[in-house]
Structures are given as structure tokens and as C-alpha cells.
Amino acid sequence: MTTKKATIKDVAREAKVSIASVSRVLNGLGGVTADTQDAVRKAAARLHYVPDSAARSLITGRTHTIGAVLPDLYGEFFSELIRGIDLAARARGLHLLVSSSHDGVEDAAAAVRTMRGRVDGMIILSEFVDGEFLDRNLPSDLPVVLLDSPVDSPRYPSINIDNIAGAQAMVKHLLDVGHDSVAFITGPAGNYDAQEREKGYRAAMSASAPDAPLQIVTGDFTEESGYRAGRELLALAKRPRAVFAANDMTAVGCLYAFKEAGVRVPEDIAIAGFDDILIARYVTPLLSTVSVSIADLGKSALLLLTELMEGKGPQGANTRTLRCDVVVRESCGAHKTNVATKQPPALV
């Protein structure tokens, strides 16, 4: 036998108040006494009343849902990013709607347009996004926060990882511990993080090893591309003493190529990555990397978005940068097997 679902009328009758009062309490509109609020909430709990989300949206003008448009869901980086966003969203009574894996600018535009009217705000990380894209595909009053984006607009605040400084610090570390040549495995073409990390590699080499040749091998953030890059580096007549990969997944693939060929890490070639995903602490040797608090990146984006949704967001151009730190483990050959002391992540 199916139990009849409680209605707002049932809650009003149970609490001995008007339907309008129940609506105001459940939608957080105020204008009722504390006693009335208490009576309504207790009545709703006793009746196991679940508000109709569509009707609630009509009353409040809010869907209590935020959208996240991401380039991919593959790998630990994006699972951690979504976890950070979702935990912060649920703590504020918000639901998360995710769209990913867009093959081109039109596909990304369709994903963004599909969310219009269904979300109260949007977090976007996409290589296809620029100011014109956003203006063309989003309503002017929809709060939006960008992640790892070159867009500099007062309408679209962003939170970026300090990719250049992190890459510079890691390359300088590899040089400082005695590796006189450092190769770099890139990320995907057109990816903002990958481009910034390559800039950091080039800047560090120019500053700390100006006479050393730049050795840059193509990758795409996947283990497979790291494996191919590792094989390519091993085929060189003059191999580098160290390899810096644009992310940890690439570094892991490269590490496997070296192990398969009988090349010792770090004795023959050192390896380091970027992101500090969980697997970096479980490969052999342990992977030196640049640590990014990925979940904090997602949480920070959600908090900034809720500020915008409440009309409390920053005015004018606003880019916040999430600091990252070098983590020294076995693979870089620095004769340290412990994680370097790090300061807690911070937005600067």
C-alpha cells in the first residue's frame, strides 16, 4: 500500500497556521514569528514533507542548483575538484549539475546553454571559454566563476592555480640538487594550465641553466602520453638527467616507460610531476611533485559563487590565485624520502 505524500496543506493543518506562513518558512522568506517557524518545521518533519522543487523555484526564483562545466571527468584531478565543489555545495543546501567532455567550442557552448534556467550559478573550466564565448552564451545576470582561465573581466571572477611559480620552483629544485639537464613533457595544446606550466619550465631553465638545451616532448595529461614521451626521451642520443611532467598522470606513464626499459629512477633519470594526486604517494619510487589542493580549489570556487549569488561578490576585475608547493619525495633524487614541510594552501 502506497502512503500518500504530504502536501503543504497538510503541513499548514498540522502546524495550525496558514499555507502562506508555511510557504514563507520553508522558502526562507521571513516575515513570520519564531514560534511559527518552529511549529512549521516540526510539522513538516512529523509528516515527512518534501517540498516540490519546481513549485519552490517558482516562488523563490531559485533552483538551488549550481552547474559545473568541465573539460573532462577522467583522472583524479577532476574527481577531487568535483568532490570539493560538491561538499561545499551540499553544506549550503545546493545541488550540483555537471557537464563534461566537450569536443569543441560548439559542444561546450551547447553544454553551457543547456544549463540556463536550471542553475542559479555556474563554475566553468574549459579551454574554449573566453569573454566573447561567455557573453554570447550566458545571461548577463547569471553568476559565473571561472577556474584556471586567462579571461580577465570584471563580469567573470576567476580562481587560478599558480602554475608558473609552481613549475619554476620544481625545475629550480631539480637543477639545485644536481640535475644539469631537465626535459619537460607538455600538457594538451590549448590547455591554459599546461601553457602556464611550460612558461614556468622555460623561465626556470633560462634563469638557472641558461646554457642547458630545452628538451620539450609532447604530452596530453594522460598516462599513455607520458609513456610515449618516456620512450621518446630514452631514444635520444643524450638523455636528460631529469624529467618534469606537466601533471602527475603523465609522470606516472613516463615512470613506467623507464622501469620497462630498466632505467633506474632517480639514479639514472629523475622524475617529477604536478598536482600531487593520490597515486603520487603510492608509486615506486614515490613521486616528487608540485602540490595543489585540488579539493580546496573546488571549494573556493563554490564559496565565491555563492557570494556572487547573494550579491556580495567582488566588484571589478578579480582573479584569485591558489598557491602551490614543491613536495620532495624519492623520484627527484634529492636524498630525501619524506614530504617537504608545506604551508597550508592559501588564496593570494
Automatic annotation (TrEMBL):
GO molecular function: DNA binding
UniProt xrefs under Pfam families: LacI, Peripla_BP_3
Listed InterPro entries: HTH_LacI, LacI/GalR-like_sensor, Lambda_DNA-bd_dom_sf, Peripla_BP_I
Key words of the record: DNA-binding, Repressor, Transcription, Transcription regulation
Superkingdom as given in the UniProt entry: Bacteria
Protein name according to UniProt: LacI family DNA-binding transcriptional regulator
SMART domains named among the record's database cross-references: HTH_LACI
Keyword DNA-binding: yes
Organism listed in the record: Dyella kyungheensis
Ranges where the HTH lacI-type domain occurs: 6-60
